[in-house]
Amino acid sequence: MQGCAARQTLESPALETRLEPIAARLIAPLRMEKVISIQIFSSGELAAYSRSDGHILISSTLVQKLTNEELTAVIAHELGHLINNGNVHFVAALAGSCASDDEESAADQTALQILRATQQRPTALITMLGKIADDSALSPQTRQRIAQRITRLKSIPDAN
Ligand SMILES: [Zn+2]
Questions:
Q1: Distance, CA of 116 to CA of 78 (rounded, Å)
Q2: CA distance 46 to 58
Q3: How many domains does the chain have?
Q4: Is the entire prediction scored with pTM above 0.70?
Q5: By CB neighbour count within 10 A (0-12 exposed, 13-18 middle, 19+ buried), where does 3 fall?
Q6: What is the span of the domain harbouring residue 143?
Q7: C-alpha to C-alpha distance for 40 and 21, rounded to whole angstroms
Q8: Which of 4, 7, 132, 145 is buried most, with the most CB atoms less than 10 Å from its CB?
Q9: Contacts of 23 (CB under 8 A, 6+ apart)
Q10: Residues 44-95: pLDDT tens digits?
Q11: How much distance in Å is there from the Cα of 125 to the middle of ligand 1?
Q12: Which residues lie at CB < 5 A from ion ligand 1?
């Protein structure tokens, strides 16, 4: 989508510059049929979204709070949603995970596959979720759901 609202709320170019190589390292080897674009939106929330057109939106605060490896994990998780929802298909064989009872854990599991396929450390997925769960602005229910995702990831041997 061109000229969308997210582009108008772009944060500092410095954050974009930081994100570009991270995204390229993850996305290029996956050889996806769709162009994935990653944009930062200005917000105090720790948030990331993906849209069916292949846009991934990450809040400026999340970018500032996470390490490069953890940001890689965020992008992998959002790609996980796009794959699991059938919005993105890989040229490389990579099975999405629909086995989980909830969409977030399913995206986490697909993210693990993506991180493995691109030789990145899967642990960052857990540390990233830990930082989000620490955000006091979140409701207790949301924090509990994130804690459950962490527990599920920790039960997967090579996620640690
Ligand atoms: Zn998600």
A1: 15
A2: 8
A3: 1
A4: yes
A5: exposed
A6: 5-159
A7: 14
A8: 132
A9: 36, 38, 75
A10: 888 899 998 889 999 999 999 999 999 999 999 999 988 888 877 655 444 4
A11: 12
A12: 104, 107
